[in-house]
Design brief:
This protein has two domains: about 140 residues, ornithine cyclodeaminase, domain 1 (2-Layer Sandwich), CATH 3.30.1780; about 190 residues, Rossmann fold, CATH 3.40.50. The chain has ten helices and 17 strands. Strands 1, 2, 3, 4, 5, 6, 7, 14 and 17 form a nine-stranded mixed sheet that branches. The longest helix is centred in the middle third of the chain and has 19 residues. The radius of gyration is 20 Å and the shape is globular.
Length: about 350
């Protein structure tokens, strides 16, 4: 029997601290060639000016975990920067988990909780190798879902004493303070600029939907660790001078775009993602999983300025988290069982 697991199921089966450790082990497997992933692929259909349909997939498989996974997102995009399915506020993202010994489908999972958590967990894990262990002050640029999970994640690994948050919308940053101060038990200061969020912070997390850089490389103080979920827009090549170590996740081209439509239609579509070229990266960029595995040093001196360029997800993250979620769902009797026969056939594929 395969399992159908909703967002509430996945949320009850794995937490942030566990996710960080699961991903740590997974990146070590990548470095040992025990796991594999394929870069994300997007198919884009322009519908009309300012509106597109996107189908995005990413895959990963692990011999040690015995599973393969594909994460599938079906999105309508409309400018300015809106993503949705059926209607704004709803989204369609699934993880399909397979048994690599039998080839059978094990589970279908909503990806929402796992999606947001694995990004924040990766950036906090970056802090384990790239931040100073004594880091106490966290600066966050952004105030949405990712910003909240980044605070939760960094609080798992560091003895934080205070948090600063900047968002261009004052109401959003005050709402962040009101909610997260109670949850994490840390004093949160709202600031009026990104520069104030960076100044004096040991760790800086950029968690935005920015279309242009939100910080300047000259602001980065010695000893600071920065995590960026959209480096090529939030920080950009011009600010690469601000960092002594630049780790990248994943190490290869982040998106494989396949676009329909005439050149004119493509130009009028939603360029939601900045599809960068490899020459935009500075020399000496290091694959993050090689740092985790100890094949390349992370931070070696207290004064180094370090960066995790977390520019794109990896399907192996969903395979690793999916394995844990599936096993625990079976143990606890959660989810809806679906007959395996529904997903098998006697005609060759």
């Amino acid at each position: 029997m395969a399992l159908l697991l909703g967002t509430d199921d996945t949320k009850s089966l794995v937490n942030m601290k566990e996710t960080i450790e699961i991903l740590d082990a997974t990146y070590r497997d990548l470095a040992k060639h025990e796991a594999v992933y394929r870069p994300r692929s997007d198919m884009v259909l322009p519908l009309r000016p300012g509106e597109d349909y996107w189908l995005a997939t990413m895959e990963g498989a692990s011999r040690s975990l015995g599973v393969a996974a594909i994460r599938i997102r079906s999105d309508r995009y409309s400018l300015p920067g809106r993503k949705w399915a059926r209607r704004p506020g709803l989204f369609c993202g699934l993880v399909l988990l397979y048994d690599i010994e039998t080839g059978e489908l094990l589970a279908i999972m909503n990806d929402g909780y796992l999606q947001v958590m694995r990004v924040a967990a990766t950036d906090a894990l970056g802090g384990r190798y790239l931040a100073r262990p004594e880091s106490r002050i966290l600066g966050i640029i952004g105030s949405g879902w990712q910003a909240r999970d980044h605070l939760r994640a960094f609080a798992c690994l560091f003895s934080l004493e205070s948090v600063k948050v900047f968002s261009p919308n004052p109401a959003h940053r005050e709402a962040f303070k009101a909610t997260m101060e109670k949850e994490v038990g840390l004093p949160i200061t709202t600031v009026a600029s990104a520069r104030e969020a960076v100044a004096g912070s040991d760790i800086v997390a950029t968690c935005t939907r920015a279309e242009k850089p939100v910080l300047d490389g000259d602001w980065i103080e010695p000893g600071t660790y920065v995590s960026a979920i959209k480096y090529f827009r939030e920080i950009g090549a011009a600010n690469a001078r601000g960092f002594d170590i630049h780790a990248i996740h994943p190490p290869d081209y982040g998106w494989l775009p396949f676009r329909a439509g005439t050149p004119e239609e493509q130009a009028a579509g939603c360029d939601i993602y900045d599809l960068y070229q490899a020459d935009e990266l500075p020399p000496g960029v290091v694959p993050f999983h090689e740092i985790v595995a100890g094949n390349h040093p992370g931070r070696t001196r207290p004064e180094q300025r370090t960066l995790l360029n977390d520019h794109c997800g990896m399907g192996i993250q969903f395979a690793a988290l999916g394995r844990v979620v599936y096993d625990r769902a079976r143990e606890r009797g959660l989810g809806h069982e679906l007959p395996s026969e529904w997903f098998l056939q006697n005609i060759t594929t």
